[in-house]
Each structure stands twice: as structure tokens, then as C-alpha cells.
Write a structure and sequence with these properties.
Elements: E1 4-10, E2 15-22, E3 25-29, H1 36-49, E4 52-57, H2 63-66, H3 69-76, E5 80-82, H4 90-99, E6 112-113, E7 119-122, E8 125-131, E9 140-144, E10 149-153, E11 156-157, E12 160-161, H5 171-182, E13 190-193, E14 199-200, H6 201-207
Parallel strand pairs: 3-4, 4-5, 5-6, 10-13
Antiparallel strand pairs: 1-2, 2-3, 7-8, 8-9, 9-10, 11-12, 13-14
């Protein structure tokens, strides 16, 4: 199956919204569209490509990833899927939006909760929710196993990881999530993060400075060093 991935850079934080499409159908991940001009780009793309938006998937509930959810839902009536653990984050969104000069942001929208390991088939694409708490308590990475695609939100980026200095963030939980849930995925898995460029799991194993022991370099072999003498057990 061929999946087309369209990336939109949204709002002043250049948040990545991904639209995944198969013929005539699509899903949006983290629609952070702010204002009519940005929303119009999405609607025009759907019209030009002849796509029907079937659902919105959220990796987490920080405001820059969800600004467009309410107006899109009001216009197109699509369901929204997210972790209910991130409902605690929503009141903080208004505060951070105001600090960046975004007034009138209202993070109220209807949504359905998903849990770790839950699978959804939308637009002919099978997604598996991988719970990755840390950046937020309800962080989710959306994994398309058959296609080798991972949409990591703000959990994992190219050569770095998500911030953990927000309310409800937990650095230790984030590191554990990445090491136990994401690094075991196949190396060629393409990672599409919430900001910046894409990467792969294999690249992050060896290059991401936050992810020891995966990226620890082996010491070079020195043939002149004394050997280790091994005595048999008696």
C-alpha cells in the first residue's frame, strides 16, 4: 500500500502536522494550524487532492500541536484520538499560548481516549498507539508497523529528545519511554517528529547523545594490551 505523507509547518513554533493519505482518504496528526490562512492551506490541500479527512490523531496535548483541532472538528466533524492522561495539560495550554501572544485559544474539543497498544484502522492505514509518557503524561507515538513509520510528536527528535521542563513533564519517564518503547523498533523505521526533520530509529541509536547505552562507541581493540587469563571452574 502506498501512503502519501504531506507535512505542514504550523504556527510560530513551526510544529509539524502530517497528513497521511491513501486514495480519497486521509488522517491528520497534530494539526497545529493557527488562524484562517494556515487552515486554508489544509482545506485547499484536501480539496485539490480529493481527500476526505477521517480522523485526527494527537501525539500529545501541548497547544502548538492542537490549535487547529477545534476549528477543523467544527467544520468537518472528524473524531479526535488522544490519551486521556493529557487532559491535565489542556488548562496550561491557554497560559502558554497567551505568553506567545496567542489570545482566544480554546482547547475544548470532543475526543476519544486511547491506551498503550491500542490499534486503529483509519483511511486504510493501521496505527498502533505506543504510550511514551515523559514530555507530557499522556504522550503517544503513532506507529504504522507495516509501513515502517513512527510519528513521535515531541518525544523523539533527530539527535535530541523532547523538553522535560514543562508542568507535568518527567525526564526520567521520557528516557525510559524512548529506551524501552522506541529503540527496540526496527532500525529502518522512519521517525517523523513534531518539529524539525525526519530521522530513523537506527540513526538515533548511534547518534542521539541522550540515548546511552545505544550510542556508546566501542573502545578500539589494542592487540598490545595484556590478555585476560580464564581459569576453568573446578
Amino acid at each position: 500500500m502506498t501512503i502519501k505523507i504531506k507535512r505542514f509547518a504550523c504556527n510560530l513554533l513551526y510544529e509539524n502536522c502530517y497528513v497521511l493519505s491513501t486514495p480519497g482518504r486521509c488522517v491528520a496528526i497534530d494539526p497545529g494550524f493557527h488562524g484562517e490562512a494556515e487552515l486554508r492551506q489544509l482545506y485547499q490541500y484536501l480539496e485539490t487532492e480529493g481527500l476526505r479527512l477521517e480522523a485526527i490523531l494527537l501525539t500529545h496535548a501541548h497547544f502548538d500541536h492542537i490549535i487547529g483541532v477545534k476549528p477543523i472538528q467544527a467544520r468537518l466533524g472528524v473524531p479526535v484520538y488522544m490519551s486521556l492522561a493529557d487532559e491535565a495539560v489542556l488548562p496550561e495550554d491557554v497560559i502558554y499560548a497567551k505568553r506567545l501572544g496567542i489570545d482566544g485559544f480554546e482547547p475544548s474539543f470532543s475526543h476519544t481516549g486511547v491506551s498503550d497498544g491500542e490499534e486503529l484502522e483509519l483511511a486504510g492505514i493501521r496505527f498502533r498507539a505506543i504510550s511514551t509518557p515523559g514530555h507530557t503524561p499522556g504522550g503517544i507515538c503513532w506507529y504504522c508497523e507495516s509501513e515502517g513509520l513512527l510519528f513521535s510528536g515531541d518525544t523523539l527528535f533527530a539527535d535530541t529528545i523532547g523538553r522535560s521542563d514543562f508542568p507535568y513533564s518527567d525526564y526520567d519517564a521520557e528516557i525510559e519511554s524512548i529506551l524501552t518503547k522506541l529503540m527496540p523498533l526496527p532500525g529502518p523505521t522512519e521517525v517523523y517528529p513534531g518539529h524539525g526533520e525526519s530521522t530513523t530509529i537506527g540513526h538515533e541509536r548511534v547518534s542521539n547523545p541522550f540515548l546511552e547505552p545505544f550510542n556508546e562507541k566501542e573502545e578500539p581493540f589494542d592487540p598490545d594490551l595484556p590478555g585476560i587469563e580464564i581459569h576453568p571452574l573446578r
